[in-house]
Design goal:
Nucleotidyltransferase, domain 5; five-stranded mixed sheet; 2 domains; alpha/beta; binds zinc ion; about 325 residues; globular; binds 5'-O-[(R)-(carboxyoxy)(hydroxy)phosphoryl]adenosine
Length: about 325
């Protein structure tokens, strides 16, 4: 049996995991940097890189110790090298290259977006391909037709903001803090999703693309009026809960409708959803209802596998089986789509 050590440092989570070539996850450790970025209302790239430098080796040690293994037991090193913040990715990529070289084992480079879909395969414990894949994270919102774990064709992405980015920005507008997704979801729980009629971009339009920046601006105007130079304090009480609920409902409607259109367009009967926003409970529920109506099977991982982690890099096993190893001069690639 081969043991893999995987590293994730693409944004603001420093993560390491140990798994086997049979996709058994022995440990998955995530050190969140949320507290460091909270006062800035978003991820500060330089702070993220420096925190990865501080946290990565202890996180790797913890992953090995929870798996009850030593470095000498590792037969392959995997790393997310794209997409993400370049300085943040570079920390993980450099550590992975050094480890693979020192241990004299293969290095496998994995795409973070493909890994978010693979998290569904990992959680399901069985094959999920071919399927429609939706990745909804802080940096990406995109639909794919996935023939296999390693062959994904883009059906459509966002024209502007990603869904998670919209959650984070709306949380800032509403004074709910960072990270925004969970805060907006909590606030929305007591609000009326019909209180504000926010736009649902491209919803009746056949193209499988997304746009969330108009929705974000609509929330801003609903809070402060159109002259935002006249700063007013963020709304409170019922208005804030109603704004959060109406915003969340608009995002959920669009994501669910586009998944439905993608299933119909491709004729596929499986939907795999990954990325931080897929932790959102109203979205999960609405996707379940839609898939049941469409006769499609929904794959959506447990919360810990939705947000950034290194266990989902078990996609590396597929590449390792094919002998697709990364060269020793592997680079961090910030852009992918
Ligand atoms: O996949 P992820 O952990 O990191 C990236 O690759 O970007 O996604 C992070 C994003 C953030 O924008 C965060 O606000 C959002 O996922 N998020 C949520 C929830 N939990 C995290 N959005 C909505 N509802 C949630 N419960
Ligand atoms: Zn991610």
């Amino acid at each position: 049996m081969t043991h893999f050590l995987a590293i994730e440092t693409s944004c603001d989570e420093t993560a390491a995991a140990v798994f086997t070539d049979e996709l058994q996850v022995l440990s998955s450790v995530v050190a969140s940097q949320s507290d460091l970025h909270a006062r800035f209302g978003g991820v500060v790239p330089e702070i993220a890189s420096r925190a990865h430098l501080r946290n990565l080796l202890p996180v790797i040690d913890e992953a090995l110790s929870r798996a009850q293994l030593n470095l000498k037991d590792i037969g392959c090193v995997a790393v997310h090298n794209t997409p993400g913040l370049v300085g943040a990715l570079l920390v993980g990529v450099s550590a992975a290259k050094a480890l693979a070289l020192a241990l004299d084992v293969p290095l496998v480079a994995v795409n973070h977006i493909a890994s978010h879909i693979f998290a569904c395969r990992l959680a399901a414990g069985r094959d999920i391909f071919p399927c429609v894949g939706l990745v909804v994270s802080g940096g990406h919102t995109a639909l794919f037709s996935c023939d296999t774990a390693l062959s994904m064709t883009l059906l459509g992405g966002t024209r502007d903001d990603a869904a998670g980015e919209a959650f984070d920005k709306v949380a800032a507008i509403l004074g709910l803090g960072f990270p925004g997704g969970p805060a907006v979801e909590r606030e929305a729980a007591t609000g009326d999703p019909k209180a504000f009629d926010f736009p649902r971009s491209f919803i009746d339009d056949g193209r499988l693309e997304f746009s969330f920046s108009g929705l974000k601006t609509a929330v801003l105007y609903a809070c402060h009026g159109q002259d935002v130079s006249k700063a007013t304090p963020p709304p409170a009480g019922k208005k804030r809960a109603d704004l959060a609920a109406s915003f969340q409902s608009a995002v959920v409607d669009v994501l669910v409708m586009k998944c439905k259109q993608a299933l119909r367009k491709t004729g596929l009967k499986r939907l795999a959803v990954g990325g931080g926003v897929s932790a959102n409970k109203p979205l999960r529920f609405a996707l379940e209802v839609m898939c049941a109506k469409e006769g499609a099977e929904l794959f959506i991982p447990p919360l810990a596998l939705c947000t950034d982690n290194a266990a989902m890099a078990a996609l590396a096993v597929e590449k390792w089986k094919r002998g697709e190893f990364a060269p020793p001069d592997l680079d961090a690639e910030p852009n992918w789509l």
